[in-house]
Amino acid sequence: MKYKRILLKLSGEALMGDRAYGIDPARLAEYAEDIKLIHDQGVEIAIVIGGGNIFRGVAGASNGMDRVQGDYMGMLATVINGMALQGALEDKGMLTRLQTALKIEAIAEPYIKRRAVRHLEKNRIVIFGAGTGNPYFTTDTAAVLRGVEIHADVILKGTRVDGIYTADPEKDPSATKYETLTFSEVISKNLNVMDSTAFTLSQENALPIVVFDMNKKGNLLKICQGENIGTTVQG
Questions:
Q1: Is 3 annotated in some ligand binding site?
Q2: Model confidence over 124-158: pLDDT tens digits?
Q3: Does 111 carry a binding-site annotation?
Q4: Which of 164, 178, 166 is nearest to 212 (CA)?
Q5: Annotated binding-site residue? 137
Q6: 122: domain range?
């Protein structure tokens, strides 16, 4: 396998399936099956999931809500998604741990880096919830931060499209896909795949990012085996 330890970043919207909001159990089960394929190959897996299918702090702020309050609500949404994903993974027979940046002892461990790494070494899947625990930081930034902290080999960002394009391919049919990009190219071209804080943190720590279509079965395994799937950002 090309990668021994990965940080998988999933958007909250990815869990909606064809629904307008919330969580689609069928989509969760599909993701769990794909994750099991690499877990069975011995890949150590950490996961960060967004909360946009339940609540977005930025959207709340635009409707007059206090931004800090809204961001904390968004963090709690990521914990709900983390619990749902944890259940789906355990249904497939995988051992998991949910760690959160906000203390919610009844349902999750507090985030402790050494404990997280030990879980990974014991072949448990670790799900990180509640973002960084701070407002004004996205779950993309949280994913890169946790990836750096646990010494992941790569950030795998699962989306609905098969990589990074010159424009939004769902809106512009003439958009073309990049096979590889440097971090500086992503920032200079203003390609809005992750926020600039996440990209900068990844660049400073030489942690590559692969953006790929998570909804195509087997893509996750192919990337871990070294196939050129999606768009790779590095250098």
A1: no
A2: 999 999 999 999 999 999 999 999 999 999 999 99
A3: no
A4: 164
A5: yes
A6: 5-233
